[in-house]
Design goal:
AOC barrel-like, mainly beta, 9-stranded antiparallel sheet, 123 residues, single chain, globular
């Protein structure tokens, strides 16, 4: 099954003195087939040569194609001068409510108009 739509994101930097990695709070609002909120935390690091990495945990609560519940997503991103990759996967066993048993992955689409998503999933 699949779901498509857009989301708005607000990242709030956190001050963790003495640590090279940065940390941010994630606050998202999803519209479309996936409708609700995503909240979590991201840890990231960027080197002077432009190489960067981030990991995040995001908890979604809302509605997916008419089913109410929630699930947790794990983000893993990497960027270098030669390549970039991003994986966002649903944590097995994290589904609640009508979304109990959900598995899948999320593709983030970024363009001049903002952020979009395509969620491929099974319940």
């Amino acid at each position: 099954m699949s779901a498509k739509g857009t989301f708005e994101i607000n990242l709030t930097p956190q001050q963790d003195e003495g640590f090279e990695a940065g940390r941010m709070l994630i606050d998202k609002t999803y519209q479309g087939d996936l409708s609700g909120t995503g909240r979590g935390q991201m840890i990231s690091s960027r080197l002077e040569n432009g190489t960067a990495v981030y990991f995040a945990i995001e908890a979604f609560v809302g509605e997916l194609n008419g089913k109410n519940g929630g699930f947790t997503m794990l983000h893993k991103g990497h960027m270098s001068k030669d390549a970039q990759s991003l994986e966002v996967n649903i944590l097995d066993g994290s589904g609640t409510g009508d979304l109990t048993g959900i598995s899948g992955s999320l593709l983030i689409i970024q363009d001049a108009g903002g952020h979009g998503y395509e969620l491929s999933y099974e319940i």
